[in-house]
Amino acid sequence: MKLRELAELTGGRILGNQDSDIIGAAGIKEAGVGDITFLSDKRGLTDIPGCRASAIITNESLVELVKNARDTFNVLVVENPQYSFAKALEAFHVHPHIPTGISDESITGSNLKTGSDISVYPFAFIGDDVSLGDRAIIFPGVYIGKGVSIGDDSVIHPNVTIRENVVIGKKVIIHSGTVIGADGFGYTLEKGEHYKIPQIGGVIIEDNVEIGSNVSIDRGTTGNTVIGQGTKIDNLVQIAHNVSIGKKCIIVSQVGISGSVEIGDGVVLAGQVGVKDHVKIGAGAVAAGQSGITRNIPEGQVYSGMPAIPHKTWLRAQSMFAKLPEYMKRLQDVENKIESVINSGFNETSKEVQSDD
To answer: What CATH class is the domain 3-93?
Structure first.
């Protein structure tokens, strides 16, 4: 497309040749002639002189720096360069899905309800009383249990397991290897034996959620485990029974969330965060990587460390920890000096006693 067409798509302003041909989108280091790339902060400025792209997407604050680095660029000025670059990637590289219908090599149970333009690929298993919304896509090897509901435009990638009575909203993406609705980890100790507590609840995945590969989301013991609208979950995350996650949260890889945790809207849990059961995390809170959350976190706060404490306090503690070897050396020096003074005084006293004798 012409650069002006991309400007119309992204709502940007062009500096340069609006009729420049754009045939693809790529990163600064990989882009070639005909590609459009993007710059959202100053870190990529050193790559611009060698970049071969025909145009670059950036924001108003970086335009002069881009022009100084290479004045021959066609520039598309937007408010959010990364978002506009995502729109460009969609335009050039994401092809529309062509519905295939239900494959004869899939297995479908009784009372299947389907919307229009669905795709069910070979070797998918769909149980009884399942509902598939318009344009739903079920890839090979997917297992969908009895009574599951999947909303419009949702995509279930290969080898996903969705257990019975799970509810999945619209525009949900679930990547390969994920298991939704397995039993929660619930046992009680009776006469020295671990007795399994039946897990009779469900899972509700609200609209516009994306779940990475090899994620486990357990069903509630009673009631539901809930993932709120717009939340994005990275690969290799564990979410236990009766957890409630709010809207538009970010859950990064290898996070583990214990049972009955309540997470507010807009929370960010960075990589390898662990959350103790029954903890409440307020809306807008952030937990830094590898934090261990053992108590409630207020709204809008940033916590770090194990056990997690306010981030500024943790930074001060880390600064002190790094200086401990120096403090130990200084303390030893002081101890040595004190010991030397004491020994010196003792020797002088001994000499005086001997002189008196």
So the answer is: alpha beta
Average model confidence (pLDDT) across the chain: 93
**CA 5 – CA 8 distance, rounded (Å):** 5
171: left (phi over 0), alpha (psi -120 to 50) or beta: left
How far is Cα 255 from Cα 244, in angstroms, rounded to an integer? 15
For residues 40-49, average pLDDT: 89
- Mean pLDDT of the region 34-54: 91
The rounded Cα 33 to chain-centroid distance in angstroms is 33
CB-CB contact of 153 with 119 (8 Å)? no
For the segment 205-263, what is each residue's pLDDT rounded down to a tens digit? Answer: 999 999 999 999 999 999 999 999 999 999 999 999 999 999 999 999 999 999 999 99
Within 10 A of 191 (CB to CB), how many other CB atoms are there? 5
Nearest to 8 by CA among 96, 87, 74: 87
Predicted local distance difference test score (pLDDT) of residue 106: 97
Q: How far apart are CA 246 and CA 250, in angstroms?
A: 10
**206, 226 in Cβ contact below 8 A?**
yes
Cα–chain center distance at 183: 24
Q: Which residue has the tokens 């307020």?
A: 282
Please, which residues bridge with residue 143 across strands?
Answer: 125, 161
**The CATH number of 101-313 is which of 2.160.10.10, 2.40.10.120, 3.30.1490.100, 3.40.50.300?**
2.160.10.10
DSSP per-residue letters across 285-348: -EE-TT-EE-S-B-TT-EEETTTTEEHHHHHHHHHHHHTHHHHHHHHHHHHHHHHHHHHHHHHH
Catalytic amino acids? 241
Q: Residue ranges of the domains in the chain?
A: 3-93, 101-313, 323-357
Task: Report the distance separating Cα 275 and Cα 266, nearest Å.
Answer: 16
* 53 vs 74: CA distance, rounded Å: 9
Higher-confidence residue: 353 or 12? 12
Q: What is the rounded average pLDDT of the residues 160-164?
A: 98
Q: What is the spatial distance between Cα 318 and Cα 271, in angstroms, rounded to a whole number? A: 19
